[in-house]
């Protein structure tokens, strides 16, 4: 049984990312002060991964409007990320940093390393501006994620962060009613 990382702080890391034609340094400090998504995937030049990253790229502008930065991470190098970006029309759409984690330090920090394969599970982490993990979603390798649902989860996390005492019910969408837990609601929902 593993311990949940919900509400824990980011652990320190330093890495190199491929971002908009350059190699850039990234650390946990880059994630502070704004909402962030750290999006782990098993490997470049594979099958489900480009469908997920392409889907996320399609929602990147909306996430940016929400004040969210996205960081994709695999245990490939930043050089491999560049090569994949140059070779794939789907990956060419990506405008967010693609972090290389060849040592697996970041992947282990987030608890999504498959040790016997040296690859990451499909792990998604939503992190608040204070560096606390607020959403975790982990999938087996054959199950792709939905960027549309991820956007909804970020919207809910941002809403409850600014509306003390309120919670978002299942499938909540912005503008819909929330709940204010109280003794009066017990057994009424």
In short:
With 189 residues, the chain is α+β, with helices and mostly antiparallel strands.
Describe the structure.
The structure is a single chain. With 189 residues, the chain is of the alpha+beta class. The chain has one domain (8-145): 3-Layer(aba) Sandwich (Glutaredoxin). The chain is 28% helix and 24% strand. A 7-stranded mixed beta sheet has the order 2-1-5-4-3-8-9. The chain has a two-stranded antiparallel sheet with strand order 6-7. The mean pLDDT is 96.
Salient structural properties:
189 residues; alpha+beta; 7-stranded mixed beta sheet; 9 strands; thioredoxin peroxidase activity; peroxidase
Q: Let me know the CATH homologous superfamily.
A: Glutaredoxin
CA-based shape: globular
What spatial order of strands do you see in the largest sheet? 2-1-5-4-3-8-9
Number of strands: 9
What fraction of the residues are assigned to beta strands by DSSP? 15-25%
What structural category arises from helix and sheet content?
alpha+beta
Biggest sheet character:
7 strands, mixed
* Low-confidence parts: none
The CATH architecture comes to 3-Layer(aba) Sandwich
How many domains, as an integer?
1
SSE order in H/E notation? EEEHEHHEHEEEEH
Mean pLDDT, all residues:
96
Enter the CATH topology name.
Answer: Glutaredoxin
Count up the helices.
Answer: 5
Keywords: Antioxidant, Cytoplasm, Disulfide bond, Oxidoreductase, Peroxidase, Redox-active center
EC number: 1.11.1.26
Subcellular location: Cytoplasm
Subunit structure: Homodimer; disulfide-linked, upon oxidation. 5 homodimers assemble to form a ring-like decamer.
């Amino acid at each position: 049984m593993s311990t949940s990382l919900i509400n824990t702080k980011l652990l320190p890391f330093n890495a190199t990312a491929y971002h908009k034609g350059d190699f850039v340094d990234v650390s946990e400090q880059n994630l502070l002060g704004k909402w962030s998504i750290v999006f782990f995937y098993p490997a470049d030049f594979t099958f489900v991964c480009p469908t997920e990253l392409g889907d996320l790229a399609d929602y990147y502008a909306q996430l940016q409007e929400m004040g969210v930065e996205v960081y994709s991470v695999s245990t490939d190098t930043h050089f491999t990320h560049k090569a994949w970006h140059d070779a794939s029309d789907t990956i060419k759409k990506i405008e967010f940093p693609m972090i290389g984690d060849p040592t697996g330090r970041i992947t282990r920090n987030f608890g999504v390393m498959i040790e016997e394969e040296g690859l990451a599970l499909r792990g998604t982490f939503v992190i608040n501006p204070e560096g606390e993990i607020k959403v975790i979603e982990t999938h087996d390798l054959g199950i792709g994620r939905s960027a549309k649902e991820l956007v909804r989860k970020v919207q809910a996390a941002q809403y409850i962060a600014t509306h003390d005492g309120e919670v978002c019910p299942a499938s909540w969408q912005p503008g819909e009613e929330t709940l204010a837990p109280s003794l009066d609601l017990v057994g009424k929902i």
